[in-house]
Amino acid sequence: MNTMTVTKSVVMITEEASFRIKEMMEHNEEQDAFLRISVNGGGCSGLSYGMTFDQNSQENDVLDEQFGIAIIVDKEDAAILEGTKVDYKQSLMGGGFTIDNPNAIASCGCGTSFKAAARPAEEQPCE
């Protein structure tokens, strides 16, 4: 892990999401990794979210720590993700992460992509 200064929270994760993330980190033997939250091009609305484990941070990353999880976000993505809440919901149909982004101006019907005024993106067909 690179040494970085912790900054203000860009993305907030709930305690429930943190439990699931820690389980996944342990299962994948990534306990010392960063959780990288990103915005990628793609999807029928043009942008999609990414959540991965990353062993390295970059100079342009914003670092935060919540519930013992080191979270990194690229500075370019920070404006689009500012105020975003990541939760984990469990239901009779299964469970999954939910992302509530106040900067999304529209989202697709399939729920996997979104539009943001801060970053125009080319729409793709739904899969």
From TrEMBL:
Listed GO biological process terms: iron-sulfur cluster assembly
GO molecular function annotation: 2 iron, 2 sulfur cluster binding; 4 iron, 4 sulfur cluster binding; iron ion binding
A Pfam match: Fe-S_biosyn
Domain Core: 12-111
Name the record gives this protein: Core domain-containing protein
